[in-house]
Amino acid sequence: MIKKKLSQKITEATDQQLTLTTEEKDYAIQHQLLSEAANIVIIEKEQLFTNAIIERFDKETEELISKDSYSFLQTPLVHFKEKLNEFLYLESPSFDVIGVDAIAVEYDEVFEVYTAMFGLAVQKKFGPAMKDYLNEHFHAENMNYSVMFAGNDGLWEVNLPLNYIDQFNENFTIEEAYVFLYSFIFSLVSTIEN
């Protein structure tokens, strides 16, 4: 999927510059998707979510609390530990290449972990490889993640406690947590599709 989506992005680049994330550029080079003449501009991590839809909702009622601007992403992630009734919904065009529309993040006060929930558009046949990848990068002895294939939607519904993923840091800003998730999911999808 990444190869197909990235090839399409490269082909559809209308101007002289091709804007890619570091992960996309490395993947495109590794899979020889770029011409030597490609004029590449790397998206800085801060630019991943400048066009994102950023909304906070009440966990119980799912009512909109606020629509936020990009600047809200500079808030420390601990915000959700302090506001237990909230979750953040972030939808970004940057997620298209990894097969995700949006990612919701919240703090689960019962298990005392930050959780990410998202639908991942990869074929059902990749389930065992996805679980192998997660088992390798997730400390399951402390807590389990949840992945379930929703056949009607053709998506894997993923519920991932972030605290047990290698290199997660509770001191992240919200933006850093989403950049971390983007990189993690990119690595997951590119690994299972090889």
List keywords for this structure.
194 residues; alpha+beta; seven-stranded antiparallel β-sheet; 9 strands; 28% helix; 27% strand; globular
How would you describe this structure to a colleague?
There is one protein chain. The protein contains five helices and nine strands, in the order H-E-H-E-E-E-H-E-E-E-H-E-E-H. The strands form two sheets. It has a seven-stranded antiparallel beta sheet, with no helix packed on it. A two-stranded parallel sheet has the order 1-2. Helix 4 crosses helix 5. The N and C termini lie close together (10 Å).
Question: Can you give me a brief rundown of this structure?
Answer:
28% of the residues lie in helices and 27% in strands. The protein has helices at residues 2-12, 22-30, 79-82, 127-137, 174-192, and strands at residues 17-20, 39-42, 53-58, 64-68, 86-91, 102-108, 113-120, 146-150, 155-161.
